[in-house]
């Protein structure tokens, strides 16, 4: 323990860190492949751009069933019908 924290050594030999490969080209290739896929399927791109929000208030109808909600998003609070909401995919 160092200063009340556990210290774990990296899983390679001394000096081996300089021998690690630079995978920038592989990452850029994967990114460009993803961009091409999103260009071919615009529905996927639109779903990735949906604003995220937290439900802060429920608005029930006269029958007691929730019909709308207030959402807190990065741009402020919005009222949306429940039909326009989608669960966060985890």
Description of the molecule:
With 90 residues, this protein is of the alpha+beta class. The protein has one domain (16-84). Helix content is 27%, strand content 23%. The chain contains 2 helices and 3 strands, in the order ααβββ. The protein has helices spanning 24-40, 42-48, and strands at 54-60, 66-73, 76-81. Strands 1-2-3 form a 3-stranded antiparallel β-sheet, with no helix packed on it. A hairpin with a 5-residue loop joins strand 1 and strand 2 (66-73). It is flat.
Secondary-structure map with pairings?
Elements: H1 24-40, H2 42-48, E1 54-60, E2 66-73, E3 76-81
Task: State the main characteristics.
90 residues, alpha+beta, three-stranded antiparallel sheet, 2 helices, flat, DUF5641, DUF5641 domain-containing protein
Q: Strand order within the widest sheet?
A: 1-2-3
* Estimated radius of gyration: 23 Å
Q: What are the segments in which pLDDT stays under 50 over at least 5 consecutive residues?
A: none
Helix content: 25-40%
Mean pLDDT: 83
C-alpha termini separation:
35 Å
Broad structural category: alpha+beta
> Based on the structure, what is the oligomeric state of the protein chains?
single chain
What proportion of the residues form beta strands (DSSP E)?
Answer: 15-25%
Number of structurally distinct domains: 1
Protein name: DUF5641 domain-containing protein
Pfam families: DUF5641
Domain DUF5641: 46-86
């Amino acid at each position: 323990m160092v200063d009340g924290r556990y210290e774990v050594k990296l899983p390679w030999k001394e000096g081996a860190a300089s021998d690690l490969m630079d995978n920038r080209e592989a990452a850029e290739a994967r990114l460009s492949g993803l961009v091409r896929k999103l260009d071919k399927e615009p529905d996927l791109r639109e779903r990735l751009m949906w604003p995220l929000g937290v439900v802060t208030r429920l608005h029930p109808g006269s029958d007691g069933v929730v019909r709308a909600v207030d959402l807190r998003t990065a741009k402020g609070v919005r009222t949306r019908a429940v039909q326009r909401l989608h669960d966060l995919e985890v």
